[in-house]
Amino acid sequence: PGLATVQPLWVKNPGIGLAPDWPYRRAEVTVPPGARLYLFSDGAFEVATADGRQLTIGDFLPVLAAPSQPGLAEPERLWQAVRNVARPGPLEDDVALLILDFT
């Protein structure tokens, strides 16, 4: 299987609960059967590499588009990809990731 098509929603908001009166922006997209929806915090991609570079969402999108690995759960595949590029030690931010498969 080749790379999947990734369609970012590009909606930026503060974390849920951090600004209760914030007028949250929203986006909508039709999700076809067989699609996968990724919801994640900025800690999944704002990672410092061993050479000190700060990764961005643009660095993470190709990771999302990469094929699944047989025998490896999708959240674990993404976590390993992040850890493989991150500098040693704990990450600077927490990582929240939710993956929804549509059938």
Summarize the structure.
By secondary structure, this protein is α+β, with helices and mostly antiparallel strands. Helix content is 20%, strand content 10%. The mean pLDDT is 88.
Q: Could you name the key traits of this structure?
A:
single chain, 103 residues, 20% helix
Order of helices and strands: EHHE
Shape: globular
Number of DSSP E strands: 2
Give the low-confidence spans.
none
What can be said about the biggest beta sheet? Answer: 2 strands, antiparallel
Amino-to-carboxy terminus distance: 18 Å
Q: Average pLDDT value?
A: 88
Radius of gyration: 15 Å
Number of helices: 2
Strand order, sheet with most strands:
1-2
Oligomer state equals single chain
Proportion of residues in β-strands:
5-15%
Q: Give helix % range.
A: 10-25%
Structural class: alpha+beta
Please, could you describe this protein's structure?
- The chain is an alpha+beta fold and 103 residues long.
- Helices cover 20% and strands 10% of the residues.
- It contains two helices and two strands; from the N terminus they run E-H-H-E.
- A two-stranded antiparallel sheet has the order 1-2.
- The radius of gyration is 15 Å and the shape is globular.
